[in-house]
Amino acid sequence: MKRVFLIVLDSFGIGEMPDAAEYGDKGTNTLASVAKSPYFSMENMKKLGFFNIDGVDCHEKADTIQATIARMTEKSKGKDTTIGHWEIAGICSEKPLPTYPDGFPKEVLDEFSQRTGRGVLCNAPYSGTEVIKAYGKEHMETGKLIVYTSADSVFQIAAHEDIVPVEALYEYCEIAREILQGEHGVGRVIARPFIGEEGNFTRTAKRHDYSLMPPKTTMLDVLKENGKAVIAVGKIKDIFAGKGITEFVYTKGNEEGIERTLEYLDKDFEGLCFINLVDYDMLYGHRNDVDGYAKALTYFDEKLPEIMAKLREDDILMITADHGCDPGYTVSTDHSREYTPFLMYGKTVEPKNLGTRDTFADIAATVLNYFEMTKPFAGESML
User: Fold this and answer.
1) Are residues 52 and 36 in the same domain?
2) Which of 195, 211, 227 is the last residue of a domain?
3) How far is Cα 380 from Cα 364, in angstroms, rounded to an integer?
4) Which residues have CB under 8 Å from 335's CB, separation 6+?
5) In 266-380, which ranges are E strands?
6) CA-CA distance, 320 to 87, in Å (whole number)?
């Protein structure tokens, strides 16, 4: 019974890509920034070979490695969650998803207001924590929705739970998702509920993402069509709009994501368990919190032996990332165009360094190769 556990450490980049300057990300290196923190320790990842990956020079390397390792290059035009995960699953996006540095066009917001019955505040790129500070009071007084974006392809709607019940906010997001197709097909519509009083507004864990439907066949579709389990942990189901998923569980953060993973390691199934650990990005990268990011990585590293101990004879563990989000890069709080790590460990996996790969899609090719399935997309197996 073959099982693959694919863990995405969301935003854990390992250094700028050659075209980083085109994205405003010259000099970014998420790993190098967090490695400077006194709270950073990844000794178990070191044993696997993490610090032996191409271009990683911020830490002592291992004399021998226990995993197959590689530095992954994002072939797609973008640096966001949707594009990154889609490429991991086999889709290379030649065109970037639309972004709105000057806010969304009037015709989009007019239709949105008409269909929701509520006005709109903000309509500009904003930090999620700052936007509720700036517009939370007016939102509570008027009932208008706080609509904002970022450098990513996102349409985000913030609303206080006492003013707009969460289920109503989700309905508004579904309306926005229907509107935002074609030319204005953003990668994600995101519900951002918050609570509290002016001066003390806090976002809650009831965030919900509404992704654009993947435009092509992914490894998830191939696995599902061939009768294998495709289990989504965290926001994986939302990223793929449910396409190709057979079972899912949402999580409130990294700790719960790791616990759900440990539970699935004890279950019998044949197929893929695809996990996203989002805190690195959401709580620390975007907030320039170097120490928080380092502590979260250290926690994962401490749990890694427990994960590895539960692997069965035919199991494979893969660890990677979807983009960067350098908390030490204070020019912006946005994602960064970086290489990502890849580590593959299992009793049937021969440890080796594969250098730098051309696309994240090699991961999808590897998964399908392991299950002896034909891949309908670019990418070469690393087995």
Assistant:
1) yes
2) 211
3) 8
4) 11, 79, 80, 81, 151, 152, 281, 285, 323, 324, 325
5) 271-277, 315-320, 340-345, 352-357
6) 12
Q: How do residues 23-48 score in pLDDT, each as one tens digit?
A: 999 999 999 999 999 999 999 999 99
Alpha-carbon gap, residue 93 to 77, rounded angstroms:
6
Pick from 189, 110, 201: nearest CA to 148:
189
pLDDT given for residue 58 in this prediction: 93
| First and final C-alpha spacing in the chain | 18
Under 8 Å CB-to-CB from 26, ≥6 apart: which residues?
A: 16, 20
Domain boundary among 211, 231, 255: 211
The pLDDT, as a whole number, for residue 332 is 85
Count: domains in the chain: 2
| Segments of the chain with pLDDT less than 50 | none
| Residues 132, 261 within the same domain | no
pTM of the model: 0.91
Whole-number Å distance between alpha carbons of 228 and 60:
40
Per-residue model confidence as pLDDT tens digits over 63-88 = 999 999 999 999 999 999 999 999 99
H-helix or E-strand spanning residue 230: strand 229-233
Do 181 and 124 share a structural domain?
yes
* Tokens standing for residue 334: 């946005």
